[in-house]
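Hi R.,

As promised on Friday, here is the backbone we talked about, encoded as structure tokens. Could you run it through your design pipeline when you get a chance and send me back a sequence?
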């Protein structure tokens, strides 16, 4: 399955699903709205055994509010165990202690 979500004019999530892994490519500015959309996307495609790889290489910036919201929602929804991160901003976006690709 391939797709694209567009939120604010400068943030996009493109994704590709293959063999139990969903690769999400983020681009633009990661703010509160972007964080909500990312969590919604993760919850939409989550099922037991699925893994997500979040590629941050096309993010222009990460706003502190968006970062905090994303990390809090990951903890509340127990999503962090199925996430890996790629790209320069991956270490910033990753919930504390998660491995990176």
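Update: got your reply. Pasting your designed sequence below so it's all in one thread:
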């Amino acid at each position: 399955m391939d797709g694209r979500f567009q939120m604010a004019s400068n943030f996009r999530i493109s994704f590709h699903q293959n063999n139990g892994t969903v690769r999400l490519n983020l681009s633009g500015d990661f703010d509160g709205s972007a964080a909500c959309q990312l969590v919604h996307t993760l919850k939409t495609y989550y099922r037991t055994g699925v893994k997500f790889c979040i590629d941050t290489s096309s993010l222009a910036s990460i706003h502190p509010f968006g970062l905090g919201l994303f990390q809090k929602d990951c903890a509340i929804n127990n999503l962090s165990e199925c996430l890996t991160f790629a790209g320069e901003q991956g270490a910033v976006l990753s919930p504390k202690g998660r491995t990176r690709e």
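One thing I noticed while checking it: The chain has a mean pLDDT of 85.

Thanks again,
M.
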